């Protein structure tokens, strides 16, 4: 399930304030930071974005 477009327009990375884009890995939805130096990946649990830096993972 994808997040509403109006929500994606206002969400930004809490670390660097770059826009986020929705992606899916292994069937799980997540939000990826589009910032050049950041790139954190935030989980989406039960259709709720978890925008905590401590919960994010670095890209591999």
Automatic annotation (TrEMBL):
Q: Which SUPFAM superfamilies match?
A: Trm112p-like
Family recorded in the similarity comment: Belongs to the UPF0434 family.
The molecule here is called UPF0434 protein ACFQMG_15655
Organism source for this protein? Kitasatospora paranensis
């Amino acid at each position: 399930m994808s997040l509403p477009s109006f929500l994606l327009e206002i969400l930004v990375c809490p670390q660097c304030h770059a826009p986020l884009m929705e992606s899916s890995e292994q069937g799980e939805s997540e939000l990826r930071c589009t910032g050049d130096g950041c790139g954190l990946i935030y989980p989406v649990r039960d259709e709720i974005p978890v925008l905590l830096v401590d919960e994010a993972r670095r890209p591999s």
